[in-house]
Specification:
Length: 246
Amino acid sequence: MLYGIISDIHGNLEAGIVVKEFLQRKGVEKILILGDIIGYGVNPEECIDVFDSMDVVFVKGNHEEAIITGDFDIFTTDAKISIEWTDKHFSSIYREKISEWKEVVEIDNLVLCHGGLIEPLYFYTNTRLKAKKTFEQFKFRYCFIGHTHFPMAFCISEGQDMPSIIAQEPDGSLHIILEEDKRYIINTGSVGQPRDGNPNACCGLFDSEKNIFELHRLRYPVEITAKKILDAGLPSSLASRISRGI
Ligand SMILES: [Fe+2]
């Protein structure tokens, strides 16, 4: 099966459209979205609608959880302003939709969650030690995550104490030949707000028959997205960070 695996679209419709069209061209059979479709950007509902015609599995992120619970206290200043904006512009139909999304999804021998299995919505799996703890939480061969907005992959063999990190290419992509005797945690980065210094949208492709994972970086018209953020009266830092990928 050829999967498209993406995360953290964050209301960025321009990036969402480019990623969706790329996945369609590649002929993916199923799209797995690892949470935080909403927050930060100004098109939360459209970013859900854009995948309407496709076979999609949605996972809940911490921004969806915040809208459902109304508790915004965990957020930093800019994130809080943006989630309050989203709260005002998010209709009841969409609230019902996100309420149905699960924190952890097991599908086709894959485990999906937003942050990490120890605390699915909030855990930052961004070090080898944290990856080790996450590996202890699942038995399947693959766990796909997002949340950090930083694409990264870990692998571990039977009997290996600490997981290894699989490095990004200089252009921010990942190309991994998945070995039969290893298990993997793969963070697919962020579609709408990458934070690894590369502003291009992150888009994962996983071929479960050929045992290959690729993370592609796609250019999109970021200046349009940034202008929409400014026009909505949201903090200018939210516009500038997507232009710089931080
Ligand atoms: Fe996020």
